[in-house]
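[job 4471] stage=fold_predict status=RUNNING
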Amino acid sequence: MKMDFRILISGLLFLILGCASARISINDKEIFMESPKIVVKEDRYFLKFRYAESPKFVFYAMTWSKIQGNKLIFYMPCTSSSGNLRGVVQYEEIVSPDKIDLIKKQSVYWENPENKLIKLVVGEMEESLDVIKSRIRTH
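[job 4471] inference complete, writing structure tokens
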């Protein structure tokens, strides 16, 4: 029993430290078939990307965002197991007025490894909100 507890604690520490320190590149073709971008529909704002169809196991992307100075910065510190998401499009709605204001000012970025900022594309969403309703996660 004592050994099982140590393994559990070690695994949790690995997960926490790994998520806190790593970043996923916007150009990582093992994660993204379509790189993250901001899409707008009917005054609603979303971070959108498509998971890769890689033969490797695909994980659920846990994206985070922060406001730093006059920039909205999205990043992906880690992934977690969530079954087969190959080719699935993910939408994350942005609801914070401060974040939306920065998007309107085209001041939105993706943070790559080594803290390099890549400007995100902002454009109109082609899909209808009814079609994507079940796939929206609030940010």
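[job 4471] summary: Strands lie at 32-41, 44-51, 60-68, 71-80, 89-94, 108-111, 117-119, 122-124, 136-138.
[job 4471] exit 0
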